[in-house]
Amino acid sequence: GTAQIGVSGLAVMGRNLARNFARHGYTVALHNRSAERTHELVDQFGDEGTFVPAESAEQFVAALERPRRLVVMVKAGGPTDAVIDQFAPLLESGDMIIDGGNAHFADTRRREAALREKGIHFVGTGISGGEEGALNGPSIMPGGSPESYQALGPLLEDISAKAADGSPCCAHVGADGAGHFVKMVHNGIEYADMQLIAEAYDLLRHAAGLEPAAIADTFRRWNTGRLDSYLVEITAEVLAHTDAATGRPFVDVVADEAEQKGTGRWTVQIALELGVPVSGIAEAVFARSVSGHTDLRAVGGRLSGPGRAALGADEAAAFVDKIEHALYASKVVSYTQGFHQVQAAGAEYGWTLDLGAVAGIWRGGCIIRAAFLDRITAAYAKDPQLPSLLADDGFAAEIAEAQDAWRDVVATAVRLGVPVPGFSTALAYYDALRAERLPAALTQGQRDFFGAHTYRRVDRDGVFHTLWSEDRTEEQQ
Ligand code: NDP
Fold first, then answer.
1. Ligand 1 center to 76 CA (angstroms)
2. Which residues contact 141 (CB under 8 A, 6 or more apart)?
3. Is 190 a catalytic residue?
4. Which residues are annotated as a binding site?
5. Which ranges carry the 6-phosphogluconate dehydrogenase C-terminal domain (predicted)?
6. Residue 336: what pLDDT?
């Protein structure tokens, strides 16, 4: 074979990845279950590079130089297994199957283990950036073995997005499912970022009393500072847009029921299993869920509360700046929680992770790309063992500076009756970490009372139980 890389599954994502490889000078073998897509690609884009179309799995495998690199870009779940089962018997030791679909990392771990027995490298790879990213440079999060990355990394780095400093938004994340895991957490953080921006918008509108066009200007201004990011940039675009049919702000004619495809939910489910508090991501998932419950929201008309009277003009101007502080501080907390989840998964699944490099991958190509990610890379470069991003002096100092404003924003939102689950859960997490004593001591007492679940003491080692229903003496277990 002559092709350096092959792509099987030529719907939007696979087609654009194949074109991206070809535009970078690679010879690309093409395959799809139904051959029409393969021919369509060659007909429409054949002049962009060198393609080797294959009608069958056998032809496709034969078209590839060894060790073979097969990118599978099909529907996640059953279809991915079907395609793997089709190719695996045709491959030889050292060949690589790269799954670029949105697989659940547990499936990736299972597939990697099964293929490893046959000497085949299975490289579960998170790819972010949608169609446009696939064509012009996505953010790429490959898992799998370090050996496979040696053979594959240079190609993936070539076609990936590039950060502002020119470095590729692609790096080997860790063994087996690490790539897909990190992609999942990326999506969870994306949910949290979007929720925080939504709360900032809600407060700019209903507390500061600004109209969408003015709010768009506010986000544009914020986008020149520490909040500089793709999501803040598109927020301004969406808010500035006017509906052609009605002449009203676009944001006012869109039904306020947010949908989800499920990766945010996965992130929270896995966090619960790992015992990692990702409250920012969880609140974001739940906020979308609440918005979609029209049945519950119909009850709201009968519930009393403040009427969201905007602040006075003099207070409102200062409040806008305070919202920026609240948004930034809450964002730092969300990322802190997301990175904690990645770190905990590394310990659980035996991945050697470079968390600074993970932040680096996200600097371009993906939805959460932001200037701010450089700061995270720098924090982990300074101390790779950082137990939490909040332990970094730089972030701690910024939050120290932001926190009076942050507290005022949450308090004002509560007073006005504007829901800010993201801002307030982030602040609660921050204050929980700061607390010298948590009421968890009382929780432990209750658990011991009703279930003899035992407790530890602050002053002595050991495990204890109080005989609550007898004479309340304490026993050491
Ligand atoms: P789809 O998820 O719509 O999948 C369509 C492709 O899967 C077609 O090539 C189809 O072949 C193939 N396929 C479906 N079932 C089977 C099967 N049983 N056996 C063989 N082939 C099958 O394509 P997309 O391009 O939208 O997405 C591809 C992957 O990338 C998905 O896992 C998706 O989740 C992920 N994705 C990632 C995005 C990102 O930003 N990272 C964005 C969008 C998607 P046929 O033409 O013969 O029907």
1. 7
2. 125, 126, 127, 128, 170, 173, 179, 180, 182, 183, 186, 358, 361
3. yes
4. 9-14, 32-34, 74-76, 102, 128-130, 186-187, 191, 261, 288, 447, 453
5. 179-469
6. 98
How many CA atoms within 13 Å lie on the side-chain side of 140? Answer: 33
Instruction: Tell me the pLDDT tens digit for each residue of 12-64.
Output: 999 999 999 999 999 999 999 999 999 999 999 999 999 999 999 999 999 99
What separation in angstroms does the CA of 86 have from each of 63, 80, 81, 113, 166?
16, 10, 9, 17, 38
Q: Residue ranges of the alpha helices (H) in 350-392? A: 355-361, 373-382
3-state secondary structure 22-56: HHCCCEEEEECCCHHHHHHHHHHHHHHCEEEECCC
- What pLDDT is attached to residue 301? 87
Ligand 1 mutation pick, 7, 12, 16, 33, max ligand atoms within 8 A of CB: 33
Of 118, 131, 135, 141, nearest in space to 24 by CA? 135
* Whole-number Å distance between alpha carbons of 137 and 161: 4
- Whole-number Å distance between alpha carbons of 260 and 190: 12
pTM score, whole prediction: 0.96
Looking at residue 262, what is its pLDDT? 86
User: Do the strands 464-466 and 69-72 form a parallel or antiparallel pair, or are they unpaired?
Assistant: unpaired
Tokens linked to 136: 């012009």
Work out which ligand 1 atom sits closest to the CA atom of 129.
40
Asked if residues 318 and 326 have their Cβ atoms less than 8 Å apart, the reply is: no
Q: Provide the terminal-to-terminal Cα distance of the chain, rounded to the nearest Å.
A: 68
**Residues 257/292, Cβ–Cβ less than 8 Å:** yes
In angstroms, what is the span from residue 82 Cα to ligand 1's centroid? 12
Any idea what DSSP says for residue 350?
Answer: T
Structural tokens at position 97: 């199957």
Q: How far apart are CA 312 and CA 66, in angstroms?
A: 70
Q: Could you tell me which residues are beta bridge partners of residue 125?
A: 142
The continuous run of DSSP H or E covering 279 comes out as: helix 279-292
- Determine the Cα–Cα distance for residues 180 and 140; give it in Å rounded to an integer: 10
Binding residues for substrate: 102, 128-130, 186-187, 191, 261, 288, 447, 453
Longest dimension (CA), the chain: 87
Q: What DSSP state is assigned to residue 65? A: P
pLDDT in tens, 228-259: 999 999 999 999 999 999 999 999 999 999 98
Written as one letter, the residue type at 172 is H
Q: Residue 3: what are its φ and ψ, rounded to 5°?
A: -80, 135
Ligand 1 atom nearest the C-alpha of 127 is 41
Which backbone phi and psi does 475 adopt, to 5 degrees? -110, 140
In which residue ranges of the chain is pLDDT below 70?
none
- What pLDDT, on the 0 to 100 scale, is given for residue 28? 98
Q: Show Cβ contacts of residue 185 under 8 Å, excluding neighbours closer than 6 positions.
A: 267, 338, 341, 342
> What 8-state DSSP symbol labels residue 225?
T
